[in-house]
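I had to read the description of the data format several times before I understood it. For illustration, here is how one protein appears when written out as sequence plus structure tokens:
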Amino acid sequence: MSVGPVVSDNSPLVFLWRLNLLSLLRDLYTEVLIPRAVEEEFLKKFSTARRETLDSSPWIVVVDLQDPEKIAEYPLDKGEAAALVLADEKKARLVLLDEAEGRKVAKARGFTITGVLGILLDAKKKSLIDMVEPNIIALEASGKRISKSLRYKVLKEAGEAD
């Protein structure tokens, strides 16, 4: 088993919150660290409801960066950059990240990454959810863009497509 914490960017939190599945983070990873910048992004919309969610989700731990100046080293938005700085500082075993540019930078810097679809796949494999497809449909309805090829690949891996 890998050591080190799991660190998340904002988008996996938002999408799991929309699905009412943030508890999957606890069930899959025990604890997830987020930098203060990600907390601020998460709370920009629906701040009261999301604050209540964070307050009732002790497995999501807000962490201040040891060296916030390092954010400038990443050509990404503040939350993504802060998540990668935190992942580096804490020697994270996994970074939860959905945006294409952030994933590209994270891979180039040697981080192991997954996004909300990977989280859903892992949850199904561990019998934490029954099906992935209804969640993909809900994600798409809430504004997440998923290519047809990625959708098919995920559903195939989940055993929900031929």
Summary: The CA atoms of residues 96 and 114 lie 5 Å apart.
